Structures
1.
Amino acid sequence: MPNDRYDITMSTLELAANTVGIEKFGVTSAEPFHTLVPFLESYYEEGRDTGFEHPMSDFRWNPRAYFTEAKSIIAVAVPYQTKQSQAMQHPSGRTGVVSRYAWGQDYHVVMKAQLEQLSMKLAALLGEPVKVLACVDTTPLVDRAIALRAGIGWIGKNGMLITKEYGSYVFLGALLVDKNIEPALTPSVPIDDCGECNLCLQACPTGALLDQGRLDGKKCLSGITQIKGMIPEEYRTKLGRRIWGCDTCQTVCPKNRHTLVSMREEFEPDPALGFPDLKALLHLGGRQFKRLYGHTAAAWRGHQVIRRNAIIALANAGDTEAVPDLLPLLNDPRSEIRGFVAWALHRLAPEDTRELVYVAWKKESDELAKKEMAWSLES
């Protein structure tokens, strides 16, 4: 209930959050994130952005520029590592790897629904309308900066928001509210608890992690698995058998070794989707992909990106048994598929496939795909 200073007290917020099943939350004001500005400016100016981000503007660091009525922000962290996903191991054989955040239901859908429930519960407790704006990953605002200032966790050297209870295996969201909300009395976490540990920096396959939690997004394999078209040569073998996303900097983090697990059924994993059969992915059509992956966070780029990544993964796995499945794809309608098939065949069976790749090269009209087939001209 409101008091003389605040429209919503912490006890009211706690009641609302507990009622709708939110595990971890914090509160901060809607004041601008001035300290974020130089970090964002250098990120764009140095060309470390991926193209997935919103362009630099006041919307990125000033909540009130984005939602003028905002007075407070409720930051929310939803854990997604369940007991089953914690125990899952990459099986041997012809299987790829999907980042564990995409093993269950799409967190955008799950969290937006829960934030909507939270706003309705607050309105019911107050007995008056509450204007809100829900933010889950796709708005210009920086969720990690909001969570940090709200005391949910600290930013690790891998750039991830790390919580005491769940490590970095949390989805972040925020609810901008047109009410003054009572803040917590004391910060709940230290500003930095990584200490001297540099395991994530040492383990990153591409050196994408810089100092002070900074990231070179163009080198991050998680983003690279999601770009369309041709993947630069220097990253292909580093992808290994990754089909979607990369968890390396999280799996090596000591803060993720002994964490609480999520009890949410929405995030229970499907092993067949977490470690998919690579050959099956080669023949995945759009409708089948939507049926299998449409409910997950791995669906938004479509099935052709997944097919391309499966071709790369088969080559990296040295799977020569996949050659008969790859050869027909030299005639695939998509040029990046044709190009990567030629690249994979060069790695798997160059002598046995040279003549067929040369035939494909002669009729290829796309210059990038043709470049990948040029090895067939070698004597």
2.
Amino acid sequence: MKREKSEALFEKAKKYFPGGVNSPVRAFRSVGGTPLFIERGKGSHIWDADGNEFIDYCGSWGPLILGHANDKVIEAIKKTVEKGSSFGAPTALENDLAELILSNNKFIQKIRFVSSGTEAVMSAIRLARGYTKRNKILKFEGCYHGHSDSLLVKAGSGLVTFGNTSSAGVPESFVNETIVVSLNNEQAVKQAFSEFKDQIACIIIEPIPANNGLLIQRKEYLQFLREICTENKTLLIFDEVINGFRIGFTGAAGYYNIQPDIITYGKIIGGGLPVGMYGASAEIMSHISPEGDVYQAGTLSGNPVAMAAGIAQLTECLKPNFYEELERKTQFLIKNIFSSLKSQVSNLKIFSIGSIFYVAFTDKEVLRSAEEIDADSMKYFRVLHKELLERGVYLGPSGYEVGFVCEAHTESDLIKTAKAFAEALEIAIK
């Protein structure tokens, strides 16, 4: 595989950006080699600066559920941007996208558009604190909620802990308001409520944790969280920035039929452009400024180009059997990967839900918590990633990240991918 142009671009980028990138995982540190500089994409394929072509399963980390440069999305973007790219004032497109979402999602009544998933979660946390008049939040090890200070906290020692900062620049005072417990551990949650009675504003969880492996939770556990929050007048936040509109139009709330108090969304609702959103009941959302006393603002919130792209994409997602077909493709891919292997591999699992999949080098039948992911197994993914690139298949450059199947993936793509996976795995697990 040619890399000369990507290597030159990376050397130049290192003069301008920390580590040569504008988001850490792009640096290829965990998989080795030089980051690929992507030049264009169409459908299920991308091309880098050296002209290498790949079948893409990263999809810009999830939002491109229709594939790259979808004709309807691109047409909506062009039509809108010709009228202006930003006004810092209301447009009808905000109403149109909101109506499209709310009329097809019974779990939220009012929403607020923002510009990223991180911003959506940060705003949801502030809303929960303002609504409950409490300061502490409870999160789970293995769930990622963006890079705001309160949430860049990892587990410390012990069953219930305030944890440790996972980034320099996060004050200890922020860490001390964030309680961290393990996923899938009811006793730990109960102990947290016992120790910090009437102090916890919210529990925040990825109901389908998909940023540190794919840690599929039991419905009973999520229902337990709903009930203990209700009992303690604590708000339950579902962070659906990744899985929202990905496993179904109503996301995990609809999949499990559990009503959270606040839901955060991102990625897919912008059709590939920067956008985020949080929503709740009309009563909870009435606490947001200018109606209420919880302040949140954004100059580019509800950007008309992003709204138009989101309308075009989500309209396609509402087509009959859209999500069923995505899941069928995902299962077809997984089945063909295993049937293409020449030898039995006992420590290989591919977990999936909807159109999200995760390659894990483990003998466990299911992963529920971050502690169950063997850090040493990343040495296999490092080889797998390299060998897949050589065979024209692109995954996100981290063994902790998931892959995504999109509408544009063809049966031919999936068969070629399965063959490439089988060949790459034979090398990775030697």
3.
Amino acid sequence: MNVHTDQTRGALLLSRLENRSATIGVVGLGYVGLPLVAATAHAGFRVIGFDVDRSKVEKLKTGRSYIDAVSDEALQAIVSAGSFMPTSDFARFAECDVISICVPTPLTKQREPDLSFVENTTRAIAAYLRRDQLIVLESTTYPGTTDEVMKPILEAGGLRSGRDFFLGYSPEREDPGSAGFDTATIPKVVAGDGAVAARLVARFYGSIVDKVVPVSSIKVAEVVKLTENIFRAVNIALVNELKVIYAAMGIDIWEVIEAAKTKPFGYMPFYPGPGLGGHCIPIDPFYLTWKSREFEVSTKFIELAGEINVSMPHYVMSKLSEALDTQLGLPLSQASILIVGVAYKKNVSDVRESPALKLIELLETRAADIAYHDPHVARIPKTRKHPTLAGKDCIKLSRDSIGAYDAIVIVTDHDDIDYGLLANHSRLIIDTRNAMQRNGIVCDRVVKA
């Protein structure tokens, strides 16, 4: 009897996933959710997109995208075809056979997990939860979140995971600005609460992406994403520390890396910078350090890496101050500075956790006059950490505008910046990305930081 029950559980949903008649809900239409919507609709599913921001919903209804990875043309195609319906009406959760949660998981000021978006979304889903629905969390979080936080909320109404509805986890792996990978081509790690849920999660994502990677449990899937980003954070911290050490010795870290990466084994190049940015690497490691305290396990290595990376904007400011003094005889408090690039990485418009914002605030506390140029960010949006910078407008690069500043600080090395123009008309350049040399520009006014 139990064997028969296990075989028939989820059979209806599995059939609907196989013939593409299932309706898919995606909660959170940001840098993760909107590309997932596009990929899911392209795979032939009907998609309802949910977001509490009504202004986003209205833009999407008219086919206007605010995410680089989804063009207006691609968005208009799925909206006009009726395969994508954006809404702020959570009652429509009842229509969905699968609901994928792609909401933010930030940190508090005390570097503790803020699961309020996940919890509020789960409560909203629970109000309309029905049998044979699959709920999947994609947001990055600590191991145990799906089972310990989401599951009790969903089961509070009497339905049971694995019997009445199904629960899974699949960490997002978006790489904003990447030309080589998109949602459909990045392998998808999947796991479920029980064998039936695991099969359904794998079948759902297998309909959308080229490859799924099943793992044995939801907790394993939850730490996969943490492991990937901790690996990057620690190695970036290492190379940032080496940058500071080598600079004191008069050695160029960039030349060292170029030589070291010619070794065909046992070495992987990581590059220094002005600090970490984005929605993952500066945040995810601290989800694990927080959870580890419950088990009385120290995470000294991870926390040290975080300290090093957080200190990098201060290091850049110190190099800028030193260069202004030695080369121009000018104190930082009397200098006018142009920040080039405020996005957290090249060729994207995302400013979340960008070290450029921290650097601007540091410089403003020293009374420096600050402006910025970024071809991808016309105006700095409101952010949780740097609300006072909201509304600051980008200036255009020209011979006159460049010459009006005492120093240029390259923070984000976008491809569509005219580095030759910077070299020809600036008094001093602080280059945190080795952008000038990589673009073949030799200039004695460049200081690497």
4.
Amino acid sequence: MPAEALTFGLVVNPIAGLGGAVGLKGTDGPGTVAEALDRGAVPRAGERVRRAFARLADRAPGTLVRAAPGKLAAGWLEGLDLDVRSLAPIEVSGTARDTRVAAQALTGCDLVVFGGGDGTARDVTASLGPGRAVLGIPCGVKMHSGAFAISPEAAGALLSDLVTSPDRIGWDDGAEIMDIDEAALRSGRIAPQLFGHARVPVSRKRMQASKGGPSTLAADALAGAARELVEGMSQGTLYVIGPGTSTGAVLTAMGATPSMLGIDAVRDGRVVARDATAEELEALAGGAPVRIVLGVTGRQGFLLGRGNQQITPSLIARAGPEGLIVMASEDKLATLAQPRLWVDTGDPELDQALSGYLRVKTGRGRETMMRVGAS
């Protein structure tokens, strides 16, 4: 893949991630987009794609990008110092068909970049066929596939390296394309499936691993950590409880049933919200102190930005690094693809402010110090 002949293709799913902040856990399925918009969801996929390509434009100006038309890609690159060549107009349907048609038109590209989540990854790779190189800019609610960069900025840096320093980048022909049945997810059941493999660039600090399945958790140790946390809760403080088995132990320790896949909230010893939206959490917080209890995604190591977009940057900023309480089993930390944790809040400045080190509760009286990186 010689740098002088490099051409990138780009397609954006403009509704990717729309259901995250409003608690829908995705935007696949009939009626979901309309419901998300009715709940006040704001599209953010295009903005995240622009952040990635702004980084590319800064580091490798004039790079050739063949882009799907309008909001499907080219419209998000306006004003950037790139050689953007828009594809012919596409009759937009607002469905996955748009992504598939655009991807099929991106012939002759060395690498097809897409903005979306796991559903978009499935549509793009299926449309391109085997052997085509792809790179995902994370814009969805759930991103279990191994085709995604860690963040928009990481994607932009990787693309610029492909242009200016291609020897730094390796290639993996077996990245897993995974997806979860969103209808099952909304009913509290995780049903992940492998849909194929893709060729992706390899950059250890910029690409996320495919998400690992459930490991054998140290359930007793996490239960002990949860009881310790509940015993030490401060009066008047809103505790926002993120999704997952580890954090669910906190509700269990209180004698309550956790949402598991949603965001719950606790204050003064009682549950004040279940499966809450971003708007509901902001309203509950009011002017009171906030602490956020988070788990760690298997193998990937994400704390924020994967399946918990209901926890907004403003709420995270109020809590601050000292207000993040992380719970994970020791075996989950030991099997991370990289020995660090990641944050992708949607606000790069906040991500930097959260970087550093924090203690992860692994049991009663047991903690492990982990490095946190801005993705």
